[in-house]
Amino acid sequence: MGDLVQVSNLRVVAGNDAGKPVPIVKDVSFSIPRGEVLALIGESGSGKTTIALTLMGYARPGCRIAGGSVRIDGAEVLDLNRDELTALRGCKVAYVAQSAAAAFNPSKTIIDQVVEVVLIRGLMTRAVAEAKAIDLFRALALPDPEQIGGRYPHQVSGGQLQRMMAAMALITDPALVIFDEPTTALDVTTQIEVLRAFKKVVKDRGTTAVYVSHDLSVVSQMATRIVVLRHGEVREVGLMEQILHAPEDAYTQALMAAARPARRHALSTVAVANPAPPLLEIRGLTAGYGRRDSRGVPCNIVLKNIDLQIRQGRTLGVIGESGSGKSTLARVSAGLLPPADGTVLFNGEPLAPGLTGRTRDQFRRIQIVFQNADTALNPSHSVARILGRPLEFYHGLRGAARDRRIKQLLDLIRLPVNIATRRASELSGGQKQRINLARALAAEPDLILCDEVTSALDTVVGAAILDLMGELRRELNVSYMFISHDISTVRSICDDVVVLYAGQKVESENHRPFQAPPYHPYTDQLISSVPEMRSGWLEESGAVQTPPYVDPVNCGTDLCCFLVRCPVRINGVCNVAMPPRVTLGNGNEILCHHSDADLRRLYSPSHMRTDLR
Amino acid sequence: MTQAAAPIATDKAVATSGLRRAGQFLMALPLSGMIGLGIVVFWLLTAVFGPMLAPYAPGAIVASDVFDPFSARNLLGSDYLGRDVLSRLLHGARYTVGLAFAAALLASITGTGLALTAAVSGRWIDEVMSRMMDALISIPSKIFALVMVAAFGSSVPLLLLIAAITYVPGAYRIARSLAVNLNQMEYVQVAVARGEGRVYISCAEVLPNMIHPMLTDFGMRFVFAVLLLSGMSFLGLGVQPPDADLGSLVRENISGLGEGAPALIMPAIAIATLTVGVNLFIDSLSRSRRTMGEV
Ligand SMILES: Nc1ncnc2c1ncn2[C@@H]1O[C@H](COP(=O)(O)OP(=O)(O)OP(=O)(O)O)[C@@H](O)[C@H]1O
Ligand code: SF4
Ligand SMILES: [Mg+2]
Predict the structure, then answer these.
(1) CATH of region B2-293, choose from 3.20.20.70, 2.60.40.10, 3.30.1330.60, 1.10.3720.10
(2) What pLDDT band is residue B17 in, cutting at 50, 70 and 90?
(3) Would you say A192 and A527 are in contact if contact means Cβ atoms under 8 Å apart?
(4) Cβ(A518) – ligand 2 distance below 6 Å
(5) Mean pLDDT over residues A589-612, rounded?
(6) ipTM of the complex
(7) Inter-chain contact B8–A17, Cβ cutoff 8 Å?
(8) CATH class of the region A37-62+82-259
(9) Strand A93-96's sheet: what is its strand order?
């Protein structure tokens, strides 16, 4: 049995503004044996997707395949004409893209779109095709496989849609499937289900696949071989085990180190029982968006009854899935969104709810750093102006004194001084994020609200930013509110953590978060969904258990927000009353009807296993 | 001073980087854009220096005959009174280009200013201003101009005012939607959270990012104003004799139509090249910005 895919000396060039060709893939060679999954791994801009697309004989607009050869099943792809390429794509080679939502037409039912290709090509009759689609839905562990195809794309969740896209790709029984970051846009708890479904179909069908990703832990679940790319060049090719345990290339080693987060920040030395009032304290906070009714309650409530504290010099992690209200929490703390109820205290003094009424000093002491450095820096300002403004505004620095301070700040964030005259659009992603952070530091704040500061960055760059934040904390004794959806980052840098689910604080942990169970059922699901960087983890980790039956709930009663998904919900308790706040033996405070002992029993390893069988 | 502080962001550095940017920008223009830019520059120069270059006074009767063809003495022939067409054109261009430019500038600045005010003020002010602009935009521009001229009599300041008022609402709408979008950007939110005042936010954070699209819009308004003013003059309601803009030149020589006199054709071509040139330039601007990324 030979190799299905052979790529040799592949070169792709892109034309830049001046019309000069810039190589973006340089002499790449690899091969994929039949039935194996090969991973292309690298940072953004390393050419992963470009290479994956050449397997379909495709180059993005502005790019050109300049040389080399791509053979699939012995046939040269780069020599095919238009018609032959059309036949190749969709039948022999199929593609699963990052964003399923963009790939589906919102006005047609899903099953129509899944079977479209085979009907157009006349490969099967409609009935056969639909039966096959339903089989695939079942194989991909979609709920209600017979009926779900009749829905429209907006009627299913993101994770389900992603699996349906895989069904669309697999329906022609392609020889090769390309998965291009198929789970990057998903929450961890969803990602694990999707991965499991992908793995199963690929294995059952003996499909040969290419898996493009930047995430080593995800890749280690799926692939048998890895190609590590950087700047369009192959840095290392090898079997999964070898790359994971004995990487040879220096870059691969750096990648591995960044992906295995060590405890980054030394834990804060400030005692938990510090008598001074906490730096930031939030009491009974409720906030939301939309029109407010007569009592000032907005129609779309996003945060409900949140309490939290951040002490001087400590880092509070805020974790939760997309839409859980993390950014809203930061916006309320910064005064950008007046809360509907509750108070925000700073150093024990209540802050005005909105912007008006806060003093300039209060503004100075709380700074916010947004997630997306691309939009957080004004594109028409130079770096010097971006950093200079807070210096002028808060500290009245002008002229030479200001320039000197700008230099110091650039030094602090390890950027060269000559960057000061550049505009934001002329910086790389990591540089932008550093400037973003430096602007907050320029104010000399006590508290920095960091909203997903590393999420848009590559692992290695993100790790450097986290290290920087740690150093700054040591040197300047600032506190952080660190918002993230990534549990391993939070675990590696935070002293305390609150877990948000659907706008409620379901758990808060002080001191060394996520180290000792038991946890709230949601936190537990979150922790156990984070892929570990070793093969076989996916098989060992138990499937998310289907929640036990509960009677339908009465509308209008306040209940646990996690009820719908909770695998350990209790009929007659969880569906009738709001859970209390319970403090567990390990100091964690959770919002749940279960006691410490219950949770220990429910989540004990032996119990989990019998449950799985 | 413990440490020698070399100024980092000197004005000079910013200026040279501006020059470099301008150079890059010119190089990136497509051919049609270069042609458009050439025409625009030509007309601007004509408006500024034209009257100095004119061989004769605009009112002087210099030719022996009316509607003369091209000749060495009268390069573009003579008009219905035997005046030099080239000289009248060079003087007339100043009115058309100058008035339209001033009107478009006034409209764009007023529109942008009002839009920024609306965007940073509360919902109420925004609502009232937007509805007022909607009312204004629903009045047909020609009829508005006719009524105004009928009421106050034609004069250059009035023409300027009419053209400006006509194009404020359009500029306002574009500017407001830009400002509202920019207000949601995170860098504006950062400035808000820093405690900056409204004036700083609109002038320093929002306005610079509106300039490019507003310049494009300004070009459009300029073309509209040229056409409106020329149309008015053609109807005899614009610039009044003895002065004449390009539209008046077409009107006063209309009797030369049968002979195909240059006195009629030249001002018409002038209006056409001016508007087409500006359009070419603007189109290529937005296109080259899209392909180059924000300049
Ligand atoms: N300006 C707004 N107007 C109305 N609703 C909003 C607005 N901003 C956010 N929301 C809604 O509030 C909820 C919480 O949003 P928020 O941005 O706080 O989530 P998040 O936890 O930060 O998510 P992510 O991880 O995706 O950034 C979401 O349902 C969102 O749709
Ligand atoms: S209260 Fe009930 S439903 Fe909610 S998390 Fe606890 S067990 Fe699950
Ligand atoms: Mg967010």
Answers:
(1) 1.10.3720.10
(2) low
(3) no
(4) no
(5) 71
(6) 0.76
(7) no
(8) alpha beta
(9) A93-96, A176-180, A208-213, A37-41, A225-230, A233-239
